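Researcher: Let's continue the batch. This sequence belongs to HlyC/CorC family transporter, and it's 459 residues. Same format as the previous ones, please.
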Amino acid sequence: MDILLSILALVGFIALTVGTGFFVAIEFALTGLERSSIENHVANKGDTRARNIQKAHNDLSFELSGAQLGITITTLATGYLAEPVLAQFFDPVLELFGLSDAAARPIALILAMVAATLLSMVYGELVPKNMAITDPLTAARITVGPVRIFNKIFKWFINSLNSTANWLVRKMGIEPADELASARSAQELGALVRNSAKHGGLDQSKAVMLDRSLKFGEATAEEFMTPRSTIEDLDVDDTVEDLLNLALATGHSRFPVTDGDLDATVGVVHVKEAFAVPRENRAKTSLRTLARPIPVVPASLDGDAVLNAVRSAGSQVVLVADEYGGTAGIVTIEDVVEEILGEVYDEHDDAEAERDYVQNGANWDVSGLVRVDDLPEKTGYFAPDGPYETLGGLIMATLGRIPRAGDIALLPQTERDSMDEFESGITGRWLARVTVMDERRVDRVYLTPITNEEAGQYA
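Model: Same format as before. Here are the structure tokens for HlyC/CorC family transporter:
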């Protein structure tokens, strides 16, 4: 009779451990599944299990509470059944070591409790957890049926526990949620894209485009506009002939039309409008009559809103205003495309001369207009925070004056934070040599990494 009871107790221990595993698996499976993957599974399978997974995910708070209750009940019952049975195996062993029956019994119970806990933890919790994390959909399909039956039986008790917990949570100023948010932030999606590219799951060029697209919504008009100092514009008193000449010289097709300077922009003109004017009238037709209104957006406007403004503008050009009301630059459809796809060149562009970054071994030939927060990804140099946004501005701040071609500046060193794509620590020293100036603007810079010993010569 004792042997039969021991066998039944061991069978019960195994069954309860399996039950614990079911509750643990459904808990991790439901929290690891995305709503979109569940909807796709329902659309493809359409069976009872798929619909039960969807129902469980939609009522996540209740299902997780039921899983917690199930884990608690099965774990307690496992210990209650297993400890006396396992203790019977430890008693003879302890007596062989010379322990009396009175001393061996409590020690055997302690050892049995430890063994039962370890077995339950490994086979009832850790193994199902790892399986559910690895393949949550399969784990959910296996476990959802029995777990939902258990939850229906104990529905009243689970709801009462949930209500008590929600009341306490609300007292802490937190509103409980019945389901997980399936949306991911742009930063999380960007990290996923970079990680996929790093491990070969995504083509590098596609990963770059996806990463740029995700970052685009967080960028501002100021970050990808054509800055004021590089804008080619025409005056309202200029003629159609002047428009054609400037188009031939620059290769551009659209130009702001100003009344004195860019702060008094009256509109924008397209070169195709010149061909609607008879040849004999082009030298005497002013652009005042051809200029179309140009929308104005603030420099702080986010990328998505700027894209909508550019697309809505008939001229595909918008003017960017700074916080003081002055003109900071313009954004064209080409600027928007390049922010997502990278540099785009047509037959009028000098692709080599207009490239922002040209690598030469460990050195870089860089445009003075590149933003300092783009430098780490390309060159590895981290610029400190300061009253500048571009590499040219950083060099001006370092020199304390307007640079001249040939000037050399030792760029300031900065401690950088730990990032996914960079190791933490102190950056190397960098030397910047101004190679080309455009009046008072730094046009091209040659960056060279140097050692700390070499940096001492320029300090």
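Researcher: Any comment?
Model: Residues 417-427 have pLDDT under 50 and may be disordered.
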